[in-house]
Amino acid sequence: MLEKWNWVVSIYRDYVGAGMLAALFLTALLYLFVTEKNKNTRILFLYMPVLTLLIFFFPPFAAIVYAFTGEEIYYRLLWLVPVTPVLAYSAVKILMDCGKKKRLWVGAAMMGILLLSGKPVYKSPYFSSAENYYHVPQTVVEICDMISQEEHYVKAVFPAEFLTYVRQYDTRIWMPYGREILVPRWGFQYDLYELMEAPCPDAERIASEARDQGCQYIIISERKPLSGSFTDYGYELLANVGGYGVYWDPDLVWYP
């Protein structure tokens, strides 16, 4: 059980990051424990979050969840902890309790604490400024608009960096593999994916495999040195979009 306890603690540490927001949350829980009198509010903003955290840190429960889901799911239990509502309610309660003359200064102090407790989200490698209303790379939008058809589904093979975006933008575009290939624990393997992600993709093998799987379009990065040319194997270069070649087989008809 000590091993599972250390595992849970490491998950929580990774989830909260620097821990400043977690410290504010625990402070807010303590404040509500001392000052909140409404029973329903205490249940919602105090008892329920504390109970959820106790369950999360309970090693036997963690062991059971781990046995069925593995490592990647357990942290999602922390999504059930209403951190933002608790902080917001506590802040409003503090402002209401401190009197009208002090509210401006107390509010400014709380805002300052919140600002200093975190860092800009765009400093993380997992976030970037949105390029459009769809919150997907603009290159994906342009390629999908180019190959999509109003009355028919199309099938296309995309490089790994686009897999999580294509069907988010256009569900009429089918792919031989999707996000599942990016999660090693799931154990999915596709020969076509390995060919596409090779340091020097082999155009002949990719074209053959893509055609066997009904892919009318091949989208591949032009930054990789390509062995051979897709145009020698029945695909035509439709366009170059944002550093990616869009190849099309005009003779291939695919039905889902």
Quick take:
With 256 residues, the protein is of the alpha/beta class.
Protein model, in words:
The protein is built from ten helices and five strands, in the order H-H-H-H-H-H-H-E-H-E-H-H-E-E-E. By secondary structure, the protein is α/β, with parallel strands linked by helices. It has a five-stranded mixed beta sheet with strand order 2-1-3-5-4, covered by helices on one side. The longest helix has 18 residues, at 39-56. The radius of gyration is 26 Å and the shape is elongated. The mean pLDDT is 89.
Strand order of the largest sheet: 2-1-3-5-4
Low-confidence stretches: none
**Roughly how much helix do the residues carry, as a percent range?**
40-55%
Element-level helix/strand string: HHHHHHHEHEHHEEE
Main beta-sheet annotation:
5 strands, mixed
Strand and helix layout:
Blueprint: H1 2-16, H2 20-35, H3 39-56, H4 59-69, H5 83-97, H6 100-116, H7 138-147, E1 154-157, H8 166-169, E2 173-174, H9 191-196, H10 203-212, E3 217-221, E4 236-241, E5 244-248
Parallel strand pairs: 1-2, 1-3
Antiparallel strand pairs: 3-5, 4-5
Helix pairs in contact: 1-4, 2-5, 5-6
What distinguishing features does this structure have?
alpha/beta, five-stranded mixed sheet, 48% helix, elongated
